[in-house]
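dumping this here before i forget
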Amino acid sequence: MKIVLIGYGKMGKAIEAIAQKNAKFEIVGIFDKEDILTNKNLQKADVAIEFTTPDTAVANMYACIDAGVPVVVGTTGWYDHLEAVTEYVLGKNGSIIHATNFSIGVNLFFAINTIFAEMMQQQTQYNVRISETHHTKKLDAPSGTAITLAERILSRLYSKTNWIKGESDNKNDLEIISKRIDDVPGIHEVIYTSDADEMTFTHTAKSRKGFAEGALYAAQWIKGKHGIFTMKDALEI
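structure:
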């Protein structure tokens, strides 16, 4: 499989390192976020993998779709444009798989979190909050992963009506506490607390390897498909 990497930061380099060790993959192009994408330099790829910034991600997706190249989108923070992107992709018969986190472990964590939130619907003695910790160069806060966790909880636990960044005095708010520490790939915690006890569900990334492997898994999965997908589709969750 021939892959173009769009974005050559920490994630782009991690994907490149794993792809180079696997005969299934060939990196045929690497573009940093400032590079101009054209049909000519995209069309040699079977799939593009995009990890850039919220400000550049949408234009990169459109460039890939125009070139007829499926794209794996790992950038977060652009979801206000999801409706427009969906319309564009479907109108061009293109294909995108997007996720706030491509780690297979995290996506299983999402599923377990959703099930547990539904179980806690009747346990009103518990309050729930989310904590997320990342490296200091991460551009968005809360993380896309934390927001996905929050949205899954809100879809099942009706005592919470919306998520909020930071602490809140409103019991209906689902707090997301964000911390930024050097060289932390990602720690996410969902914490249920009552007067009697506390339960914490934690996913800790040891490195970016899991994210990179998941992105390459998604790249293999989306080849030959058309539409808008997420890792729930790829993992059949």
